[in-house]
Each structure stands twice: as structure tokens, then as C-alpha cells.
Specification:
By secondary structure, this protein is an alpha+beta fold. Helices cover 34% and strands 30% of the residues. The chain is built from three helices and five strands; from the N terminus they run βααββαββ. A five-stranded antiparallel sheet has the order 1-2-3-5-4, with helices on one face. A hairpin with a 2-residue loop joins strand 2 (60-67) and strand 3 (70-77).
């Protein structure tokens, strides 16, 4: 049987989705023997899923894909508004999600798709 190179989680827009996504991410990083990047990928997953829950408020889908030299994280939701990164002030407790993704990811972006958008991030492994 070939190794699993991707996995998907579908969820309602509930705060529990963030913890489910974190657990799945950590489990897959271990399965892929990528322990050095587990914390990085899990942080990205948590931020992108939390943003989808908070800002889109629609059902969402998390996809993790192990590619030759990277892990790709994709979060699809049904909202058409594209995300915007802001640089938070030191005392700002919100608006850190995409700033964190930008710090950790090799690359990230957002693409409109039929029925919503996909926000993605890649981490070189």
C-alpha cells in the first residue's frame, strides 16, 4: 500500500475545528517523519482554520498534502472575501493570523474558487 501523501478534514465553522485541525496536522507530520516542521505546520494550520471559522463562518475544508520538498496546507471556505494581512501592534491581541502564517510559511496566498476561496501556505521540508 502506498504511503498517505494527503489528508482532508471537513468541519462546521466552530471553534472545535481548530483543535481537530491541530491534532490532524500533528498526526500527519509524525506519519510523514517531519517532526522538525511539526510545530510550524501545526501553527499555520491553526491560524488558517481559525481565520476561516472567525471570518468566513461557513463550512470549511482543510487539506494537508506532502509533496516532494514541501508540505502544502489549504483551507477552503465558502466566503468570497479575500484575506488581508495586517501587521499587529505589540499590544494588539487580534489580527495576528496571517502575520504568523507569513512568518512561518515559505510561501502563502489565497485563490478564488467556484463557491468561495482557498487560502494556502507551503512549508519547505
Amino acid at each position: 500500500m502506498p504511503p498517505v501523501t494527503e489528508t482532508t478534514l471537513r468541519s462546521a465553522p466552530q471553534t472545535e475545528a481548530v483543535e481537530q485541525a491541530r491534532r490532524l496536522s500533528a498526526r500527519m507530520m509524525r506519519a510523514w517523519s517531519l517532526l522538525d516542521q511539526e510545530e510550524t505546520v501545526t501553527a499555520i494550520v491553526a491560524e488558517l482554520v481559525a481565520n476561516a471559522v472567525r471570518h468566513a463562518g461557513t463550512p470549511l475544508e482543510l487539506r494537508l498534502a506532502r509533496q516532494r520538498d514541501q508540505v502544502r496546507v489549504e483551507v477552503r471556505d465558502r466566503a468570497v472575501e479575500m484575506p488581508r494581512m495586517s501587521v499587529p501592534e505589540l499590544e494588539d491581541e487580534q489580527h495576528r493570523g496571517l502575520f504568523i502564517v507569513d512568518c512561518y510559511a515559505t510561501a502563502w496566498g489565497a485563490d478564488p474558487v467556484v463557491g468561495g476561496k482557498v487560502v494556502w501556505a507551503e512549508v519547505r521540508v
